[in-house]
Design goal:
The chain is an alpha/beta fold. The chain has helices spanning 6-12, 31-43, 63-77, 91-104, 121-132, 151-160, 174-184, 200-205, 220-231, 235-257, 260-270, 287-300; strands at residues 15-17, 48-49, 82-87, 108-111, 139-144, 166-169, 190-193, 210-213. The chain has an eight-stranded parallel sheet. It is globular and about 50 Å long.
Length: 302
Amino acid sequence: MTATFEPERAALADVVAIPVTPFAGDGTVDEDAHRVLLRRLLDGGVRILTPNGNTGEFYALTPEERRTVTELTIDEVGDRAAILVGVGHDVPTAVAAARHAREAGAQMVMVHQPVHPYVSEGGWVDYHRAIAETVPELGVVPYIRNAALSGERLAELGEACPNVIGVKYAVPDAARFAGFARDAGLDRFVWIAGLAEPYAPSYFSAGATGFTSGLVNVAPSVSMNMIEALRSGDYPAAMKVWEQIRRFEELRAAHGSANNVTVVKEALASLGLCRRDVRAPSKVLPEAERAEVAAIAAAWSI
């Protein structure tokens, strides 16, 4: 009997939280702080989390740390939320991580955009197929940041791998997204706006039903307000949230998104929830820029 993945598909149509990975003073993963942050997300209404996402500094973690983050998240969350584990790098590494996610109890894996400098469309299909076929019991979600990839290639992957059930689409072009989704199969996949709240209204208007969020670490209620507005088709209300988060997201996007994680951790540090530490090639905010982030976070916490 072929799995339908209906619970997993339903879970993806939501705020897909990308938790940060907090670090202790000695540079190791701060497991206690991590659990506190996860409980805060769950208590705030989050029902799907992506350990080892980009906001979790996936590429700065060691393989052992990524396994620790996966296991810690699954243990802390229990049955309160679905787990979508980030996997990637070379095929054997991604396959090993996907198998570990399955053994640890995750329901899905998200395959990070391949970072190889030479990516063909056919090779993209082969890469994802090699991972998806290894874990047929898990839902698989490709993370697409490549504007050159065609929707027909995703359709090809979906035909070969029924467990490829959703797409995190992160090309900053709503018109391209609309065409890509329809070329791939609008109803075949669950479409997630992979560029978070700033792009969620435009992507929802073109067929997305979920969006990723790093901001949700700081203010779960703000992200939940946006998803509720979008689900009800109340775009004016969604845009009010958009205006509320605009400056925060502009700070994250500055300098080619150099401060994407840095700003989130700075906000959490200002609230006393974790240290501001990030790993190279990210860098903590200069002292002069911290006050603005703290002010935004404080306003949201009221």
